[in-house]
Amino acid sequence: MSGGSGVSSPSLGRISTSSLSDLQDLELSSESGCLSIVVLGASGDLAKKKTFPALFNLFQQGFIQSGEVHIFGYARSDMSDDGLREHIRGYLKGSSDEHLSQFLQLIKYVSGSYDNGTGFELLNKTISENETSENNQPGNARRLFYLALPPSVYPSVCKMIRSYCMTPSSHTGWTRVIVEKPFGKDLDSAEELSAQLGELFDEEQLYRIDHYLGKELVQNLLVLRFANRFFLPLWNRDNIDNVQIVFREDFGTDGRGGYFDQYGIIRDIIQNHLLQVFCLVAMEKPVSLSPEHIRDEKVKVLQSVSSIKHDEVVLGQYDGYKDDPTVPNESNTPTFASVVLRVHNERWDGVPFVLKAGKALSSKKAEIRVQFKDAPGDIFRCKKQGRNEFVIRLQPSEAMYMKLTVKKPGLEMATEQSELDLSYGLRYQDIKIPEAYERLILDTIRGDQQHFVRRDELKAAWQIFTPLLHDIDSGRFKALPYQPGTRGPPEADELSKRMGYVPTLGYVWAPPTLAKF
Predict the structure, then answer these.
(1) H/E element, 327
(2) What is the pTM of this model?
(3) CATH number of this structure's domain 34-180
(4) Residues classed as catalytic
(5) pLDDT tens profile 120-173
(6) How far is CA 56 from CA 48, 82, 441, 452, 476, in A?
(7) Of 40, 166, 197, 234, whose CB is crowded by the most CB atoms within 10 A?
(8) What are the residue ranges of CATH 3.30.360.10 in the chain?
């Protein structure tokens, strides 16, 4: 097939200092020639709120440049080039009018259906005209297709791309396709989708995007674990009691109830976002930073996860969820879930990993909470104050901090809980943390698949959750009611307690600010 794995282009701009990628380790080499980025579903919410702003941010930072890149929007909507430009203009922030206009002039629009060749023939013709223009190096073309579309149309769209829009065999370069989650609804549907796409593209051409893998603190996990000596002997069952990976939203489905009800919180958040974080927390050290070496270790840890037990799962549905007219009155779809994963290997045997996610809760945050075992021989009688915890706050207020017991200032030998704190807003005031989508799109241009989901990894993930999901879908496992604005069903806190989690009484972490200094 044409368009196999390509490599990166330093000519696209400076290399991000926050990236884990090292050009030599990843064997990336220089590329040149026309880069065509096609956003399919260009008139939709995902494209205008995430995809185009990410491209604009890459343009502002010089990673994509007007001399070599062309951006094409494709959708069913009937609009002009200027119509698409105005449609997305309000979502492109942080630039002068002149710079914004330069970016918008890179964008062209093609209208057509997703299952008919006529529109894709026109799209290919438009792309080819730009590739052969006098400003571009002849015979070299790179085509990136971003599917900002529902998964139901992936097979037909990919057939059209394969039939009409591949990089010509007479050109050097590549064709790559980014597909958004959800990748199926269970193991069988995911395997069917993988097989359909696999007939059309090599694995090196497919980039299954999970935007959590583009978050700064998630990308920091490998560095934290494997570049810091003091973590190496601690990161195991001898020292760690339990791990909590938490995602909370303080709002409900907000008009998306009908869509959400098809999936539920496990398919929407836990089986993908939180499970990817789990992999990076629990995996073994890879041989190198090669994308395949990293993804090999993620697959190994997923294959080591034992079957989920019903008595280690709590499901919830907030009161008022079914008031949405698009949600069936008899819906059992969970808006909250707490699921315990157990890893059957030497490092983690006996350590519960609690993956918890919910909507309409009391707070909004995503974090990893690694709780260590009690210190033996409690001579200070401070055990009741809480345990050591290493907390990685993914969002908002990105930070990592270690909760520990210290002497309380004063004349008495009294102890209290405090923290060693690295808050990104304070430590890196002059650095803009990249958005996940811009980082992942840049990785795709460079041909770096480290932060994308491989087919066997996707299969292993669905093997873990499919039996539980089928029990929920059939009504054999019921969701418990909970009030909006709370922590979720009380049974979830009871489950965490049963898994050994000890809350810290009287301690609340507050992000530091310059005002304090």
Answers:
(1) none
(2) 0.88
(3) 3.40.50.720
(4) 273
(5) 999 999 999 888 765 655 667 899 999 999 888 999 999 999 999 998 876 788
(6) 11, 16, 11, 22, 47
(7) 40
(8) 214-429+452-499
